[in-house]
Amino acid sequence: MDYQRIYDYIGASGVALVAVAAIATYLCVKNAVYLTWIGWAFHRHIAGLVRDSARLDAEAGARAGNPLIRIFSEAVRPARWGANDLRAELAFLFHKHFRKVNRAMTLLRLISVISPLLGLLGTVLGISKVFRVIASQTVANPALLANGIWEALITTIIGLTITVPVLCLYYFFRMQIHGFQVELMEYAGRFSAAPESR
By mean pLDDT, which of 7-21, 22-36, 168-182 is the weakest? Predict the structure, then answer.
């Protein structure tokens, strides 16, 4: 594979966009797998507790590998919570246990903003290459002009191709995380409201 030829086609901003696309792909796949797994395991845990609430072991749950189970277990550990206290505690615990996910989500959002800007940079660089060729020659070489225009167009296409799916996945993951927060509030309220049933 001739890397110099690829570089000539896509330019420096195109190379940066390919690196950004690789990072975005990794983060999207990692978050999709991770969020699916923790949601599945949390729902199994809750289903087991609904069948037999005597299985609720807040101490063991607080050491679980699943952050949703840890948050739930830490939230139901105190005997009495008011609705506002429980909401505040859940918000704190969610922030504490979802720090890595929130960092990855911030990176995805950043990628969705940076990608079209890198595409625009490639467009400007490609167009400036075209103007440089036109200025240096009395008769412009169509192949050199086409190469500059190609670089301008391909980086814009790559930037938008990265931005659109990453932004869609970012909001999908955000909705999934928000759904987890709502479920945690509901289940923690249900299990902490009836300590005598445990």
Answer: 7-21
H or E segment to which residue 64 belongs = none
Say how far apart CA 67 and CA 73 lie, in whole Å. 10
Task: Provide the phi-psi class of 141: left if phi over 0, else alpha when psi is between -120 and 50, else beta.
Answer: beta
Residue with tokens 């923690």: 188
Write down the residue that tokens 């909401």 correspond to. 87
Q: Which two tokens stand for residue 88?
A: 């505040």
Torsion sign, CA atoms 25, 27, 30, 32: negative
How many other C-beta atoms lie within 10 A of the C-beta of residue 92?
A: 13
Question: Residue 110, Cβ neighbours under 10 Å: how many?
Answer: 15
pLDDT in tens, 12-23: 888 889 999 999
Question: What single-letter DSSP state applies at residue 121?
Answer: H
Cα–Cα nearest to 186, from 75, 64, 103, 104: 75
pLDDT tens sequence across 110-137: 999 999 999 999 888 888 877 877 777 7
Determine contact, residues 131/157, Cβ cutoff 8 Å.
no
- Are 73 and 191 in contact, with CB atoms under 8 Å apart? no
Distance CA 163, CA 21 (A): 9
